[in-house]
Amino acid sequence: MHIFKSSTIPTQLILVSSLLILLTFPIQASPVYTFHACTDQQQSTYYKPNSNFQTALKTLLSSLISNSTFHNGFYNIRIPLFNSPNDLKGLFLCRADVSPSTCQNCVTAAANNITKLCNNETESIIWYDECLLRYSNTSFLNHIVPAGNLYSVESIPDSQVTQFRDFVAKLLKDLANEAVNSNSGQKSFAVKQDNFLGSIKIYSLAQCTPDLSTFDCNTCLQSAISSIGDCCSSKRGARSLLPSCNIRYESYPFYNVSAVSTQPQLESPSSGKNNVSIIIAIVVPIVVAVVLFIIGCYFLRKRAIKKYKYNATFIRGSSSIRREDFTDIECLQFDFTTIEAATNCFSNENKIGQGGFGVVYKGILPNRQEIAVKRLSMTSLQGAIEFRNEASLVAKLQHRNLVRMFGFCLEGREKILVYEYIRNKSLDHFLFDPVKQRELDWSIRYKIIVGIARGILYLHEDSQLRIIHRDLKASNVLLDENMNPKISDFGMAKIFQADQTQVNTGRIVGTFGYMSPEYAMRGQFSVKSDVFSFGVLVLEIVSGKKNTDLNHWNNADDLLSYAWKKWSEQTPLELLDPTLRGSYSRNEVIRCIHIGLLCVQENPLDRPSMETIALMLNSYSVTMSLPQRPPSLLRGRTPDRIKQGLDSDQSTTCSIPWSVNEVSITEVHPR
Question: Per-domain residue ranges for the chain?
Fold first, then answer.
């Protein structure tokens, strides 16, 4: 037996007590590293040590760590970069079932390791089992590729592989649907358990970053599911990690089942009365609040219908809008006071543009969302028809090359449309500026041409309704922070019925220089009217000059005539913007000029469809017909050359007619 002196007893007691106290606290396991990805190798960029970027990155990572115990496991931040048009953006997303302390540990580890794994790179992402963290100075939606796919080494027996693949496919499909439509506090998150053949329990989890829309979350998860199906659906466990979402399944409970369980807990009899009181205290206020909310919505809706209902005869007279179209988008309506506050009372400092129908302002909503506000002029020709038309149209459109509409405001004489804010403004802001046009190298211009073609093809063929834009021009093409084009301004767009190919109108609207001859002369417009405008726009992008700027064209009326002159002289590269002469793809430039001239044929039958154009831009195996001389803005036109049947997709059979050295052109491309 050991005998302690009295003087040493307090010290020993203190040590033992301290040890017991420490043992009462749960030991936090270290976060489990999974995967990381650095900048896309095709767009690899680096920052210099001790640069402004590194300083901003340190601030961003520190902010992510300090906010990792708040915001329900998700936080994003923007930090302005000195002498750069782009902000540095960062975010973290913790798994919804982990505790705040676990989230903080994971975010801290991720922030400390990401700069070591991706040294001096301007865009990086790292995944742990418990969280993901990323930063970038460019676009933030699924930009880093490829993502990570991981799977268990243990496979299902060969005799059960087919059944297991079907089982996993259905399980993940249902799981993604639950995550996308989640109405709980854990937005865009879901877990699911199911038994395979009654013997193997499979646990699954899906999660998107909460900043994604329902559409984007579903798109991301479907991509992740497809990735799992391609690589590892016969494995007992697998996961797919994307920058904005992830999905996983395992044959063991890899998440905190109790934290996400919806099953009620059994209560002891002694606590029953207290629990009843608690339930009453919670449920009664909720029920009262719901009843008041329903009553309030009823009266607000009744007031809105009374305030904004319009004459039924007027609706029947418009082929482009129906009553149900307007009702569908009432939920997108903004209060005028909200818009007024967002734009600082429509101050001149917030003015970013002006079109034929009104002024466009930059605004910031209370949630810090940047918006573009189109305030229609009270003296504008755009009345209720065009306003409701644009609101109804754009609300239905979902495409990466079309501008997104967030909502609208209709109060009194005020008609306002609220769009996403595009930081780089419109294409003409760059294309026709002697200084800024140097920022548009050929690869960017070609990407813009292809993006515009995809957007118009979506309007013509792939959207729920066939839509004719009628005012496609450089100022109506916006450029996002990665110079991706987004078509805007649908105030003059028209909806076609499924069996319609041509419409006559007595009201000619559009922009001089972009309108097709049959539309300008006869009021006839069709999908081929947009094709003509697209052709003008392509030639402008190639040349860097406006179609109507007569000062640039020697012995030619306009850009179309000048392009035809250089084509017929077999010197088409003289049309190319001089700022591109140092670096460009000769074959792509010639192909774009060829496509542009085909699009601006005077006879609509001779113009290709947007579907054919998209194929021409993406496949060099397609042969193209010989273009004819395009109409001139100043040269008289022969009306009988403009025929009907505007929606025909005439096949093209002739190859490129010439080459510089009079040898046929062969373009080899890898398959």
Answer: 33-136, 161-260, 316-420, 427-641
With beta carbons less than 8 A apart as the criterion, state whether 396 and 406 touch: no
Residue 622: alpha-carbon gap to chain centroid: 30
Other C-beta atoms closer than 10 Å to the C-beta of 615 total: 16
What amino acid positions are annotated as catalytic residues? 471
DSSP 316: H
Q: Which fold has domain 161-260?
A: Killer Toxin P4; Chain A (3.30.430)
558 touches 564 (CB < 8 A): no
pLDDT tens for each residue of 347-406: 999 998 876 667 899 999 988 899 999 887 765 555 555 666 667 666 777 889 998 888
Fold equal for 33-136 and 316-420 = no
What average pLDDT does the structure give for the chain?
76
Element (H, E) at 200: strand 200-208
pLDDT band at 44 (very low <50, low <70, confident <90, very high): low
Burial 380-413 (b: 16+ CB within 10 A, else e): bebebebbbbbbbbbbbbebebbbbbbbbbbeee
The CA-atom distances, in angstroms, between 232 and each of 127, 155, 226, 248 are 19, 9, 10, 11
Q: What percent of the chain has pLDDT over 90?
A: 32
- Looking at the domain that runs over 427-641, which CATH code has it been given? 1.10.510.10
Q: 30-44, 193-207, 248-262, 642-656: lowest mean pLDDT where?
A: 642-656
Strand, coil or helix: what is 141? Answer: coil
Using pLDDT thresholds of 50, 70 and 90, give the confidence band for residue 4: very low
Q: Number of helices and strands (H, E) in the chain?
A: 18, 21
Measured CA to CA, the distance from residue 493 to residue 467 in angstroms comes to 7
Enter the tokens of residue 158.
Answer: 């060969």
Residues whose CB falls within 8 Å of the CB of residue 182, separated by 6 or more in sequence, listed in order? 188, 189, 190
The answer to whether the beta carbons of residues 224 and 259 sit under 8 Å apart is no
Write out pLDDT tens, residues 532-566.
999 999 999 999 998 877 555 566 668 999 999 99
Side-chain half-sphere exposure of 590, counting CA atoms within 13 A: 20
d(CA 357, CA 286): 46
Residue in this structure with the two tokens 């900048």, named with its chain if needed? 39
Residue 276 has what pLDDT?
A: 62
At the fourth CATH level, the homologous superfamily of domain 33-136 is Gnk2 domain, C-X8-C-X2-C motif (3.30.430.20)
- Which one, of 144, 164, 147, lies nearest residue 155 by Cα? 164
Strand pairing category for 351-355 and 189-196? unpaired
Cα separation, 490 vs 469, in Å, equals 6
- The vertex-16 CA angle with 10 and 19, nearest 5°, equals 140
Superfamily of domain 316-420: Phosphorylase Kinase; domain 1 (3.30.200.20)
